[in-house]
Design a protein that fits this description.
With 164 residues, this protein is mainly β. It is built from one helix and 14 strands; from the N terminus they run ββββββββββββαββ. Helices cover 3% and strands 44% of the residues.
């Protein structure tokens, strides 16, 4: 009877850390635990390939990093918002269980380049009097915007306000 050599198995390899959300221009990563056909951690070098797709169109290949001990990280940096698919396979043709992963990429509403500020209160004001300005950004559209502002000036007290 021939002995089967351990090989990386697509149905036993598991995605251990992932998120369905990502942000444009920020690194998105998932981690894998590669197992052999017997369910044991696969210690050999697995041939893991990952593609980022828009529908059925391959946009680019994701980076694959060997973390050791049968663990891998698959990462990419999306440049624009949208819904992408992340397809991960062994040997380029055996797709992992649970793939492709759907990843929703949004603009990071906390990023200054995605926000605009308007109003005289940004450039002038009188001590002890309220100022007014507006912030326009993605967060104001999707959910209630919360700001935590702290005013500091020489010789005056600190005030902290939270506006909704």
């Amino acid at each position: 009877m021939a002995c089967q050599q351990p090989r990386a198995c697509e149905s036993n390899t598991q995605i251990t850390e992932s998120s369905v959300n990502g942000f444009a221009n920020e690194r998105y990563a998932v981690q894998l635990a590669c197992h052999d056909q017997f369910g044991s951690p696969y210690i050999g070098k697995a041939d893991i390939h990952a593609d980022v797709l828009d529908g059925a169109i391959i946009l680019f290949s994701a980076d694959v990093l060997d973390l050791g001990g049968g663990r891998y990280e698959v990462a990419f940096m999306p440049e624009i918002s949208g819904v992408y698919s992340l397809s991960i396979s062994l040997d380029g043709h055996r797709t992992l269980k649970g793939c492709p992963l759907s990843v929703r990429v949004r603009n990071d509403e906390t990023c200054a380049v995605n926000c605009k500020l308007y109003g005289l209160g940004l450039t002038q004001g009188t001590a002890g009097q309220p100022i007014e300005f507006s912030i326009q950004g993605e967060a104001a559209v999707e959910k209630q915007l919360q700001l935590d502002l702290e005013a500091r000036c020489s010789g005056c007290r600190k005030e902290k306000s939270i506006w909704h």
